[in-house]
Amino acid sequence: MKILDRIEELIVIVMLALMTLLTFLQVVMRYGFNSGFPWALELSTVFFAAMIFVGISYGVRTGAHIGVDALVKRFPPGLRRAISIVVVLLCLLYAGLVIYGSWVYVSKMKLIGIEMEDLPIPIWIVRSILPIGYLLLVLRLGQVLWALITGRSDRLHLGNEADDALRLKSGDAP
């Protein structure tokens, strides 16, 4: 899994860097030379989508998603673990529905043969990031579920903004 971790991180970093560079170049071209790239916005949107859909699974792996667990924290570990398993199963169900729906959508886009508006790229290639991103999410949720089932964890590890804010206020790093 370490290689997948690195690939996720690399994709997010590269997409953010490319999006930032392209936007910067577009601003320089527009305000410095009164021209620009007609395809820049569309390509930036593609980079952003790739970053977001890969970032979803990255967020699960790192515990970066916002979690509201004030009530669940009050339960005993066994009940907390059971609730967490149900939550992960519901997330897996949702991800499965999105994968199915996006697969149907991408398949239709491939069948129709539509290209992007400003770039000569078939739109199904770009939109394939949706099922790919959610497949990565299923993999990460599977890891969380396994940790819950095997007892290595008794709850979801989500970001806790309240604890992070208190640590920042007291001078501790999050």
Highlighted features:
single chain; about 170 residues; mainly alpha; about 75% helix
Give the SSE order as H and E letters: HHHHHH
Largest pleated sheet: none
Residue runs with pLDDT of under 50 for 5 or more positions: none
Strand content: under 5%
Structural class: mainly alpha
Form type: globular
Radius of gyration: 20 Å
Count all strands and give the number. Answer: 0
Mean of residue pLDDT? Answer: 87
Distance between the termini: 25 Å
Helix content: over 70%
**Number of helical segments?**
6
Overall description:
- The chain is mostly helical and 174 residues long.
- The chain has helices at 2-33, 40-62, 77-112, 123-127, 129-149, 161-170.
- Helix 1 (2-33) packs antiparallel against helix 2 (40-62), helix 2 (40-62) packs parallel to helix 5 (129-149) and helix 3 runs antiparallel to helix 5.
- The longest helix has 36 residues, at 77-112.
- The model has no long low-confidence stretch (mean pLDDT 87).
